[in-house]
């Protein structure tokens, strides 16, 4: 048992069986007062049962915090990340990763408010989330004590967890008594499923695992056409109707779900060193990424656009690994945000059977010049004859290399 003396701990609490067991375990093992924090990030679950469960387990009403963070989550975390077009390992839109720094931030704020000397989470000792939470805690409060029960306790099986719950009169839902077929994490950006029936990457994801999208094969035969407006890189309206960040993402989720958009079966490289197979559903985010890249295509200069694409993998890796509050992520964010100064306009999209197809884009800041690209005569800014010198200068080193090969008979 960890011998660290703790007076009060703030627990990231979902109200589910695992975090309820952790709550009681903290009280028993550390003899400390427990404060619960439950975040509404748009996971689609009723959160009041978490309050009732905490009260049932002896938590004082003033020590129960439930906060609606949906707008802050999308505005201050999801949107900045999408300005970067961040995609981890070419596919993953970082739905779980981007939620962790906000939860960590709020836990630390509550810890300071109530005078707690510790924080705790329910992430396992094999996953990435333990790293993300704890890097966030330490960045925001370097002297905080962190309690990670899954790395400390001896409850190693489902049977032991159930026995602990029964011993301490922790309510167990009927569907929680058996071994869970897979684990789910959800928020307004995505839903992810991992473990058990998904562990063999050779086996197709069963239909019952999907919760955010319909089967693309069963999506409507008629495409859905929408427009998305952007201002300085952030989406602001759908079909001309202005919306708050959270409301806009929720609407895109509905549109994506109905058209079978956003499914991803991925084997990824975890930060802790192992490969993991997961199934991700990011319907609204998939649409948003396509739209953002489309508006950038006419508003970003080539040099800025290409530099952004070079920086993006590093940015995505920082988010995935839990370094949201690190100076290098903030430095990259400043550069990315600067690039979005003129990323304003409208994109039209066709949503059809799992596909997001760009069919139009327009902006008052567009760099696209039809006079320059037309095959018709009339462009005065471009002289075809200038291309010859341009090509010869760029070919100089290639010609030099060719001469050397010729000399050497290669």
Itemize the secondary structure elements and their pairings:
Blueprint (H helix, E strand, L loop, with lengths): L7 E5 L4 H14 L2 E8 L7 H9 L7 E5 L1 H14 L16 H15 L3 E3 L8 H12 L4 E3 L1 H4 L5 H10 L15 E4 L4 E4 L29 E8 L2 E5 L2 E2 L2 H14 L4 E7 L5 E7 L1 H17 L2 H20 L5 H13 L5 E8 L2 E8 L7 H4 L12 H23 L2
Parallel strand pairs: 1-2, 1-4, 2-3, 4-5
Antiparallel strand pairs: 6-7, 7-12, 8-9, 8-13, 9-10, 11-12, 13-14
Helix pairs in contact: 3-8, 4-5, 8-9, 10-11
What does this structure look like?
The chain has 410 residues and is α/β, with parallel strands linked by helices. It has helices at residues 17-30, 48-56, 70-83, 100-114, 129-140, 149-152, 158-167, 245-258, 283-299, 302-321, 327-339, 370-373, 386-408, and strands at 8-12, 33-40, 64-68, 118-120, 145-147, 183-186, 191-194, 224-231, 234-238, 241-242, 263-269, 275-281, 345-352, 355-362. The model has no long low-confidence stretch (mean pLDDT 95).
**Content of β-strand:** 15-25%
Helix segment tally: 13
Mean pLDDT: 95
Major β-sheet profile: 5 strands, parallel
Q: Tally the beta strands.
A: 14
How does the helix and strand content classify structurally? alpha/beta
Strand order of the largest sheet: 3-2-1-4-5
SSE pattern? EHEHEHHEHEHHEEEEEHEEHHHEEHH
Cα-based radius of gyration, to the nearest Å? 26 Å
| C-alpha end-to-end distance | 70 Å
Low-confidence stretches: none
CATH superfamily of the largest domain: HUPs
Give the CATH class of the largest domain: Alpha Beta
């Amino acid at each position: 048992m960890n011998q660290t003396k703790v007076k009060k701990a703030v627990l990231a609490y979902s109200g589910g069986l695992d975090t309820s067991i952790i709550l009681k375990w903290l009280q028993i093992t550390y003899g400390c007062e427990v404060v619960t924090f439950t975040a509404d990030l748009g996971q689609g679950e009723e959160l009041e049962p978490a309050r009732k469960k905490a009260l049932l387990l002896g938590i004082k009403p003033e020590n129960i915090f439930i906060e609606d963070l949906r707008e802050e989550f999308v505005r201050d975390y999801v949107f900045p990340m999408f300005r970067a077009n961040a995609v981890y390992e070419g596919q993953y839109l970082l739905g779980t990763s981007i939620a962790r720094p906000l939860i960590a931030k709020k836990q630390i704020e509550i810890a300071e408010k109530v005078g707690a000397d510790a924080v705790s989470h329910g992430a396992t000792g094999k996953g990435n989330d333990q790293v993300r939470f704890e890097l966030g805690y330490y960045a925001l409060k370097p002297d905080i004590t962190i309690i990670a029960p899954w790395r400390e306790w001896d409850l190693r099986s489902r049977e032991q967890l159930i026995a602990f719950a029964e011993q301490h009169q922790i309510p167990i839902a009927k569907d929680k008594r058996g071994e869970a077929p897979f684990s789910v994490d959800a928020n307004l950006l995505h839903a992810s499923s991992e473990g058990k029936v998904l562990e063999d990457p050779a086996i197709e994801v069963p239909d019952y695992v999907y919760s955010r999208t319909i089967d693309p094969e069963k999506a409507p035969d008629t495409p859905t056409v929408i427009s998305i407006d952007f201002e300085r890189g952030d989406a602001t309206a759908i079909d001309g109707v202005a919306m708050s960040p959270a409301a806009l993402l929720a609407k895109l989720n509905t549109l994506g779900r109905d058209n079978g958009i956003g499914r991803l079966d991925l084997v990824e490289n975890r930060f802790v060193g192992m490969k993991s197979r997961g199934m991700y559903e990011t319907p609204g985010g998939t649409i948003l990424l396509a739209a953002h890249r489309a508006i950038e295509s006419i508003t970003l200069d080539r040099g800025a656009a290409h530099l952004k694409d070079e920086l993006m993998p590093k940015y995505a890796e920082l988010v995935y690994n839990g370094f949201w509050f690190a100076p290098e992520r903030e430095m990259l964010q400043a550069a990315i945000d600067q690039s979005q100064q003129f990323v304003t306009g409208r994109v039209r999209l066709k949503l059809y059977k799992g596909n997001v197809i760009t069919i139009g884009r327009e902006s008052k800041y567009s760099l696209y010049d039809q006079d320059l690209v037309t095959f018709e005569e009339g462009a005065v800014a471009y002289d075809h004859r200038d291309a010859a010198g341009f090509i010869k200068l760029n070919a100089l080193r290639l010609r030099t290399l060719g001469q050397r090969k010729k000399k050497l008979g290669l």
